[in-house]
């Protein structure tokens, strides 16, 4: 199996608004299911331009081949992010945030439940499936040999002319592993004790609205803040509301480091 284990590191701009606070932020930023770092790279660049050091890992089974993803499991994804965070912790940052899109948001929540992060930033995290998808997950052990892959899950973008770099097929075994991850993360949401910002698309054709409801039900309401995205679909990091996500996440880190909010 050809699995990438690489990190893209974006250095902080010395004159960014976060740099002005003299608080050194490290941000671990995680991409979505079947996609790769490019789906969150503009977000990462915005955070780095503001003065944060941004680390974007490539999840096992991603950015290679569909068959590679079919051979990876939820434990590998979880370990990749936890190990990346552990490595980042020892780099001497004053504050540490974890952020992610879709599956990356799910893994960010998992990390926040296990590590003492200072902020969690989520774009449409996956915490549930649509009813038909849930049925497919339940039947996957029976059918995955006959139907090893299904259609793509990526590319749900409202903005015209924008494409997400992702696999054109989705391996059924990997979807079953995603379901395992979701069950694990949902059981540990109450362990999160640091601020969480949820960027939630009002129209999402991949992750159902029940995911946001689950988050609101299990996270301390004093810790959770929701920003509704009315002009983007699932991959909001590449969509019409991307600039809003960038500025609000920078403002969030500023507020947690004693800085003054920037201009939107």
The proportion of residues forming helix, as a percent range, comes to 25-40%
In whole angstroms, the N-to-C terminal distance is 45 Å
CATH class: Alpha Beta
CATH architecture: 3-Layer(aba) Sandwich
Radius of gyration, CA atoms, in whole angstroms: 17 Å
The residue ranges in which pLDDT falls below 50 over 5 or more consecutive positions are 259-264
CATH structural fold name: Rossmann fold
Active site: 102 (nucleophile), 204 (charge relay system), 234 (charge relay system)
InterPro entries: AB_hydrolase_1, AB_hydrolase_fold, Esterase_lipase
Pfam families: Abhydrolase_6 (PF12697)
Protein name: Carboxylesterase
Short summary:
The protein has helices at residues 17-20, 41-50, 66-70, 74-89, 103-114, 131-143, 172-186, 210-218, 242-256; strands at 7-10, 25-30, 53-57, 95-101, 119-123, 149-150, 170-171, 196-201, 224-229. The chain is an alpha/beta fold. The strands form two sheets. A seven-stranded mixed β-sheet has the order 1-3-2-4-5-8-9, with helices on both faces.
What would your notes on this structure say?
It holds the Pfam family Abhydrolase_6. The active site is at 102 (nucleophile), 204 (charge relay system), 234 (charge relay system). The chain has helices spanning 17-20, 41-50, 66-70, 74-89, 103-114, 131-143, 172-186, 210-218, 242-256, and strands at residues 7-10, 25-30, 53-57, 95-101, 119-123, 149-150, 170-171, 196-201, 224-229. It has 264 residues and is α/β, with parallel strands linked by helices. It has a single domain (7-256), classed as Rossmann fold. The strands form 2 sheets. A 7-stranded mixed beta sheet has the order 1-3-2-4-5-8-9, with helices on both faces. β4, α5 and β5 (119-123) form a beta-alpha-beta unit. The radius of gyration is 17 Å and the shape is globular.
